[in-house]
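Key result, reporting period 2: structure in, sequence out.
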């Protein structure tokens, strides 16, 4: 928790002030319900992120390994214009 407080640059006095404001706004009877709801929300969020992370890991493990293919360059004899003309279909109507 100290790491999170360091991110927001919140000290002990500010935390006490925030807690006092929450107590005044919601009352002592509502605080346990709010804390319970907050805890359940955090728990559900962690479950969802863990589930998504596990699904992603499984998808990565199941995906086939793709090996790079070698590029085969055409030979000069197969790209010559003479060979292309000899392979052209002849016109039947003439």
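The corresponding designed sequence is given below.
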């Amino acid at each position: 928790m100290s790491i999170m407080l360091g991110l927001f640059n919140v000290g002990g006095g500010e935390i006490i002030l925030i807690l006092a404001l929450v107590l005044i706004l919601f009352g002592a009877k509502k605080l346990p319900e709010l804390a319970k709801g907050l805890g359940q929300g955090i728990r559900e969020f962690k479950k969802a992120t863990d589930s998504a992370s596990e699904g992603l890991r499984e998808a990565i493990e199941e995906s086939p390994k793709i090996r790079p293919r070698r590029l085969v360059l055409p030979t000069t004899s197969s790209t010559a214009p003479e060979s292309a003309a000899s392979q052209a279909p002849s016109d039947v109507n003439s």
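DSSP finds four helices and no strands in the chain. The chain has a mean pLDDT of 78. This case is discussed further under Risks and Mitigation.
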